[in-house]
Design a protein that fits this description.
With 224 residues, the chain is mainly α. It has one domain: Tetracycline Repressor, domain 2 (Orthogonal Bundle). Helices cover 58% and strands 0% of the residues. It is built from nine helices and no strands. α5 crosses α6, α5 packs antiparallel against α7 and α8 runs antiparallel to α9. The longest helix is centred in the middle third of the chain and has 25 residues. It is elongated and about 60 Å long.
């Protein structure tokens, strides 16, 4: 009887997926690529060989699920954006009013950036795969931005005394620019700086834009 050979030393030893479980390997490949990209911070430095090794498969196994590296990177962006979108939505859903919902949404965004800076860089700093930015409305991050626009609009509908005549889209853009600027500086800082608490900066931005609950007497205010 012919003896079964042991796999060569150093070769991946991941158990073969059972029929119908190919999606599990695909998810593991995306997660591994995401974590590796969070470490190296540069799509050019991410190798398919490294992704395969992290999961415990051979490089050819990746191509059964992804046509090339660009396709894998697109999947990484889609998964990470979907994760952030869900996280922010859950944070806002726990609020009692639209103003608190907007604030909780923004705080969750800032917290994600501070607690997972590598994954945050994957979303905003790593070079986007070819074709991803061709149509802004179909970018993986578009639903998240539009959710912020909707959150701002609900505040306006609830009586927010916005300091300007800008619409919800522009106000959302100002919030996102402020939040991204803050976390990007804090993540990438290379010098000592007395950064104020992110929550304090957020509250100031929302108050300056008039996106806080009106005071009971009808005058602007009600901020925390």
């Amino acid at each position: 009887m012919r003896q079964r050979r042991s796999p060569p030393a150093g070769r991946p030893t991941r158990a073969r997926a059972r029929r119908g479980e190919g999606h599990r390997l695909r998810s593991e490949l995306v997660a591994a690529a995401s974590d590796l990209l969070a470490e190296v911070g540069d799509t050019n430095r991410l190798s398919m060989r490294a992704v395969a090794a992290a999961v415990g498969v051979t490089p050819p196994s990746i191509y059964r699920h992804f046509e090339d590296k660009q396709a894998l990177l697109v999947a990484v962006l889609e998964d990470r954006w979907a994760e952030l979108h869900e996280l922010l939505g859950k944070a806002a859903a726990s609020a009692d009013d639209p103003f608190d919902a907007l604030r909780r949404w923004c705080l969750a965004y800032l917290r994600f950036a501070e607690e997972r800076p590598g994954h945050y860089r994957v979303l905003f700093s790593a070079a986007a795969p070819a074709g991803v930015g061709d149509d802004p409305e179909h970018h993986p991050g578009a639903p998240t931005f539009f959710a912020l626009v909707d959150a701002v609009q609900r505040c306006l509908d609830a009586g927010a005394c916005a300091a300007t005549a800008r619409d919800s889209w522009f106000l959302a853009l100002q919030i996102w620019l402020s939040g991204h600027g803050l976390v990007d500086l804090r993540i990438g800082q290379r010098f000592a700086f007395p950064w104020p608490p992110a929550e304090a900066v957020l509250d100031a931005v929302l108050a300056d834009l008039g996106l806080v609950a009106p005071a009971h007497d009808g005058s602007p205010g009600g901020g925390r």
